Prior knowledge:
CATH topology: Arp2/3 complex 21 kDa subunit ARPC3
Distance between the termini: 15 Å
Shape: globular
Amino acid sequence: MSTKEMVYIALFAALIGVLGIIPPIPLGFIPVPITAQTLGVMLAGCFLGRKMGALSLVLFIVLIAIGLPLLTGGRGGFSVLVGPSAGYILSWPIAAYLIGYFVEKIWSKLAVWKVIAINILFGVILVSLIGAPVMAIITGTSVWAGLVGATVFLPGDCLKAVIAAFIAVQLKPVSPMEEKTQGV
């Protein structure tokens, strides 16, 4: 792994941490707040590709586990990774990997609508399908109730998917994936 790749990975882990500064929106009926950090997950996959995108999220989770308060509300520590948000957080590297994988496949014919579809499929639906059942199990509620409760995230997450797609397409010329296809 090159130094440049390590810098991109660290940069995106930091970006997701910075998105944690935006205050969470707590919900009374579900123990997981609405946050801006899934925008960073989608951006990592869209901009960095599968390998670096996933590694940036793995690094982020390691930093959380060792206690850095990088999640919204200044949360951090291993306890967060076994709490109600655990499934959502642990799904992030998988989501970034799959977003990156499919964006790499369409890179030569990159279009905003294609990236939006990929972000919604893996950055919204997949994250909810992993996060909601884990939250339900941890809180002792039914998986169905967890999935129904998680629908509150869909409008905001779809908006983040659109924003991430527009940013990724606009930044295509400076993306590490563009450098690989150009042989730089």
